[in-house]
Amino acid sequence: MISINSRTSLLTDHYELTMLQAALHSGAASRPSVFEAFARRLPDGRRYGIVGGTGRLLEGIANFRFSELELGFLEQNQVVNRQTLDFLANFRFSGSIYGYAEGEAYFPNSPILIVESSFAEACILETYILSVLNHDSAIASAASRMTSAASGRPCIEMGSRRTHEEAAVAAARAAVIVGFTATSNLEAGLRYGVKTVGTAAHSFTLLHDSERDAFRAQLESQGRGTTLLVDTYDVVSAVRTAVELAGPELGAVRLDSGDLIAQAHEVRALLDSLGNENTRIVVTSDLDEYAIAALAAAPVDSYGVGTSLVTGSGAPTAGMVYKLVSRAGADGQFVSVAKAAKNKTSVGGRKYALRRRSPQGVAVAEVVGIGHRPQDDGDDRALMHEFMIDGVLQEGWTGAAGVSRAASQYQESIAELPSSWRRLQKGEPVIPTEYESHES
Amino acid sequence: MISINSRTSLLTDHYELTMLQAALHSGAASRPSVFEAFARRLPDGRRYGIVGGTGRLLEGIANFRFSELELGFLEQNQVVNRQTLDFLANFRFSGSIYGYAEGEAYFPNSPILIVESSFAEACILETYILSVLNHDSAIASAASRMTSAASGRPCIEMGSRRTHEEAAVAAARAAVIVGFTATSNLEAGLRYGVKTVGTAAHSFTLLHDSERDAFRAQLESQGRGTTLLVDTYDVVSAVRTAVELAGPELGAVRLDSGDLIAQAHEVRALLDSLGNENTRIVVTSDLDEYAIAALAAAPVDSYGVGTSLVTGSGAPTAGMVYKLVSRAGADGQFVSVAKAAKNKTSVGGRKYALRRRSPQGVAVAEVVGIGHRPQDDGDDRALMHEFMIDGVLQEGWTGAAGVSRAASQYQESIAELPSSWRRLQKGEPVIPTEYESHES
């Protein structure tokens, strides 16, 4: 595993550390606490979300330490006092983290991540946890709608240039988890072992004296299985030139502009007439899930998706929050807590969750138990996994292995959703979230 | 300067390197080339954009090198051949880069960045350049509308938790350039020397046995100048408790939910009646430029902005592209080039730009010269600066100094725009972009 998150501890909000300071002062910093990350609602009209980022998050938490560099900054800028600096110098998360597996579907109020530790330890992880989960879950949730719309045709992630350069790596990772077959992002290949692909841009054609020269260079260098970009000048003549130079073994042609549906039909007919029945057609050009769905009846072999993927197709953040839901009082007894103020009400108490399934294995409800595990009716599936226990990272969630596991989890999760999960139009969550608040 | 971009060379698309390989094969890789980064249009209805990310980009390009780690990955995964690996092993950008200063306003087709080098060198920077400029310019452009709407009241950036953890640092940096007075993001403070602030969240109140205990702890630890969060339970009783404990020196109270306009009036009246005329009111809670504008008449002292800032307030990416616009042919003469295909037409040729100003110093047009510098009418301002010359980074653009310089540039740039730049409703760009294509 290539770790790049070598410094994560200052990827956080100033107030996490000033709260820590004040809680150390009052003595409440050591109170055993339970924090929960959840989304109050899904983005407008979405029917489900997909948890993304958990593996990346766990890698980052393992590196959440304060070295001389960070401590020096905090001291010099008087962010916190000496007592707090001493606490941070020795900080290493020693609590436990539970939650939904990466790749799992989630719904409003699904308890996606539970952090159990002292207030001090759980508090200072807040911003980092939310940054990772909110970004990666937004991408995974949007990307899932695209692979769903593609109905088995391969989707390729190619949005790096439309988002922050590090967000791009995370987006590629999230896309692969929900069924994208490859990414253009090389760093994602290096870090997570995901497949990378790519051929050429318009600049490559424009660089050469003629399209023919450019195609010849690419074919000689990359082999006849390459994908030639055929819309720099005139598509029909480009396809003819491509076939003339590459013959029937030409791998694919790419269309990146214009009316993709009409062009796909035209190019397919032309390729077939020239004997290139096996040459595939790749389309790119501002595709989103709706454009992919509209291309379902066109003779297209694969989709390259960029902007709409890395921007969450209209929902660039998942809107998750991280709330203190329970903490011990002076007597050591846990007390459920929740903000009472207007329009942001939360449900206090430690949560557990399972997906209620019919005897036929179809999901019917998200059942959240408050303070207890909900009863499994025999067909249900428990949703909470152990990620860290007493500061020890559990195996299998991080690195390339974590990505593979998340991809499997995703397939299992969507396979049991009611078929309405595939509907792109706005609607209600495909299953309701139900609380069980009695003690078992 | 704290550099974190130690590895930037794989933050790129696979096809940049396969294009390089094919161009090395054809020999065209060494052709002198000119690439241009520009936006064909502004996001829907926006009247201007603000260039963000240039300083960060230049830092990253200086670190754009291929070490054993990257080369090993590329070789093992057969991304490129031996000839290309040898080229990359020795790669260090040796060309020249010109462009709009960070913080400058831009318009459709403003030539924001010009890269002059061999095709090989300019080609492989494409993805990285676009990632940085598209992200940071989207944030700077949205954030500018917020400081504009705030009309001088301080705005604080606090959106880290709603975006990728590294994008959050860049967003904080971009916000400060366009007039945000501070950020919650500590890493941005460390890297760029920007001011960080923060106080406490609802969890801090819920942690304690009572709101009174929490306020007392915070006041004792942070001093009376702190900001108390007063909407965990009941705002009116929280304000009374806060004033009772802190007296007239209480710095500020924060409102994070409910009807902010009504509450601001209520809390202002209450504070005044209790003798706390100098206690400020800070509002947060899903603010965007429209909400800020709506609060203009409310007794609010500062705004904390999160989600809408880091997601570009509806336009999370700036939509810039990076196109080959000119390159030398076999005879060494430069030829303007441009893609001819449908709906993505570009204008070929090396660009220069100035902002045409009236004798009163008001901007009237963005003048783009193709192949020559447009004539300065005497009141105009040249827009292109030298960032790198023959591989040498020019001073003053990067690090904390670059952020300060960009913040000054921003103020200069908006000061000369027609007053319509402040309108939040959708409209045309505040000045037109005009091409001058004759040779001078």
Automatic annotation (TrEMBL), chains A, B:
The lineage of its organism: Bacteria, Bacillati, Actinomycetota, Actinomycetes, Micrococcales. GO terms for cellular component: cytosol. One of its GO terms (molecular function) is glycosyltransferase activity. Its EC number is 6.3.4.21. Catalyzes the first step in the biosynthesis of NAD from nicotinic acid, the ATP-dependent synthesis of beta-nicotinate D-ribonucleotide from nicotinate and 5-phospho-D-ribose 1-phosphate. Residues 10-134 form the Nicotinate phosphoribosyltransferase N-terminal domain. Pathway: Cofactor biosynthesis; NAD(+) biosynthesis; nicotinate D-ribonucleotide from nicotinate: step 1/1. Belongs to the NAPRTase family. This is Nicotinate phosphoribosyltransferase. Gene3D superfamilies: Aldolase class I, nicotinate phosphoribosyltransferase. It comes from the Bacteria. The keyword Glycosyltransferase applies. It catalyses: 5-phospho-alpha-D-ribose 1-diphosphate + nicotinate + ATP + H2O = nicotinate beta-D-ribonucleotide + ADP + phosphate + diphosphate. One of its GO terms (biological process) is NAD+ biosynthetic process via the salvage pathway. NCBIfam families: NAPRTase_put (TIGR01513), PRK09243.1-5 (NF006698), PRK12484.1 (NF009131). It holds the Pfam family NAPRTase_N. Transiently phosphorylated on a His residue during the reaction cycle. Phosphorylation strongly increases the affinity for substrates and increases the rate of nicotinate D-ribonucleotide production. Dephosphorylation regenerates the low-affinity form of the enzyme, leading to product release. Keywords: Glycosyltransferase, Ligase, Phosphoprotein, Pyridine nucleotide biosynthesis, Transferase. It comes from Psychromicrobium silvestre.
